[in-house]
């Protein structure tokens, strides 16, 4: 999605709200863009930043050719600041916001306008959230804040109340799966990727990634271990699972794979095989697993997996999260 007209095809309401404000010259001082992974949050944030800085835009559309548009696309615009979670602590810290505020005390390098984007805003520590709140309460005339989250319930209400909220609707996985197959992906991979993401580049990148291929193998091994070798699960978690899923994003992806696999087993139970993503072409394997896990167990396991994801977001020790999850699944 390079233009607002392309965004309108995927996210019509979000596109209409933002472009109307652009045309009326009423861009909000703060946006909270919320939606599941792959719904276009980052793309919309970058497009909005281009619109703010573009020197040759037509109505709401940035030209994509001027110096500002090209520098934003390459990640080199001096007045666009992108804040992401600290990779070590897996959260956005107060010090990062302090540094941002210091940067905003200076005039813009190329104009009086400044834009900052906070990715994964739900990972703001409480101190960082309070700093951002103060920033939002005293916005500069030419400052635009854009916060992105796939977990809007973790954003404190005082921040939400100061933002224009843009809700992105879930994308149609069937249409995306068809697009993947038409672009050359195997049907087996397309079923899984359309359940994990709505981003074409991500989908093809993951199918070619050895790390992701190993992730799929480990996910299958862990699930089968519950039915065949339960006594070896803790050893498996410590020796294979945790060394492979190292940072928070990888750990979340591991839980996402487990969620899809256990959903497949539940779908097999209720005769909804067309919704399966992991075991689409593994009839014997899914049948054996469905004989081990009851529907009641599967519903409880899915809830426990969602709870484990929430704990990771809250910076609970990931090894402890996996150990607790293993115990809960074994019960």
TrEMBL record:
<dbReference type="InterPro" id="IPR004622">
    <property type="entry name" value="DNA_pol_HolB"/>
</dbReference>
<keyword id="KW-0548">Nucleotidyltransferase</keyword>
<feature type="domain" description="DNA polymerase III delta subunit C-terminal">
    <location>
        <begin position="243"/>
        <end position="329"/>
    </location>
</feature>
<keyword id="KW-0235">DNA replication</keyword>
<dbReference type="InterPro" id="IPR015199">
    <property type="entry name" value="DNA_pol_III_delta_C"/>
</dbReference>
<dbReference type="InterPro" id="IPR050238">
    <property type="entry name" value="DNA_Rep/Repair_Clamp_Loader"/>
</dbReference>
<dbReference type="Pfam" id="PF13177">
    <property type="entry name" value="DNA_pol3_delta2"/>
</dbReference>
<keyword id="KW-0808">Transferase</keyword>
<keyword id="KW-0239">DNA-directed DNA polymerase</keyword>
<protein>
    <recommendedName>
        <fullName>DNA polymerase III subunit delta'</fullName>
        <ecNumber>2.7.7.7</ecNumber>
    </recommendedName>
</protein>
<dbReference type="InterPro" id="IPR027417">
    <property type="entry name" value="P-loop_NTPase"/>
</dbReference>
<dbReference type="Pfam" id="PF09115">
    <property type="entry name" value="DNApol3-delta_C"/>
</dbReference>
